[in-house]
Specification:
The longest helix is centred in the last third of the chain and has 13 residues. It is globular and about 45 Å long. With 177 residues, it is an alpha+beta fold. Helix content is 31%, strand content 32%. It has an eight-stranded mixed β-sheet with strand order 1-2-3-4-5-7-6-8, sandwiched between helices.
């Protein structure tokens, strides 16, 4: 799989944009312009992955001192359940082997309409070395479980990485479980 930085002028930008805009609910998503602007930072990355001309997925993440915050991972519907998501996660873990990878997922057990999807999503991350932390993130769009590959969770760095993505306009809180 080939990795490319996502830029507006790249070939097949429309495929990346389409995936980004359809993979996440509007209340959980930045605009493409915001994502591209954020990715101009030295430590915020927006990557696409390709097999030939086929888009296999995208990653958007912020790299800190000891932690990497995975904001978005998306795989096109036509290549889901074919190992692409696992390849993206494993690439990230290998590329940043000195960092704990953290992210947020919708919690299980709230009788949500998409409960089955939430269960499958957690199972995917669990199979790829993640576990639930003893905190939840609460923000205007909802409540999220925090998942991590590490044995130590640095609350301050986690919140700093999120704040950098939001330019200080975001006011989430952590809830201990």
């Amino acid at each position: 799989m080939r990795c490319k930085d996502i830029k507006k002028e790249m070939p097949h930008y429309d495929a990346v944009r389409e995936l980004q805009m359809t993979a996440f609910p509007p209340e959980e998503s930045f605009s493409m312009e915001e994502i591209l602007r954020l990715s101009e930072s030295d430590h915020i990355e927006y990557k696409s992955f390709w097999k030939g001309e086929q888009l296999c997925g995208i990653l958007f993440y912020n790299v800190g001192e000891t932690m990497l915050y995975l904001f978005y991972l998306a795989v096109p519907a036509k290549v889901r359940s074919k190992g692409c998501g696992t390849q993206l996660i494993q690439w990230l873990i290998k590329m940043y082997s000195d960092k704990t990878v953290v992210g947020n997922i919708e919690p299980i057990g709230f009788n949500a309409e998409n409960e089955d999807q939430r269960i499958r999503r957690f199972a995917f991350y669990e199979q790829n070395g993640f576990h639930k932390e003893s905190f939840r993130l609460i923000d205007d769009s909802g409540i999220y479980d925090i998942i991590s590959t590490g044995s130590v969770f640095d609350e301050k760095e986690y919140m700093r990485l999120i704040d950098e993505l939001e330019f200080g306009f975001y006011n989430p809180s952590l809830q201990s479980l």
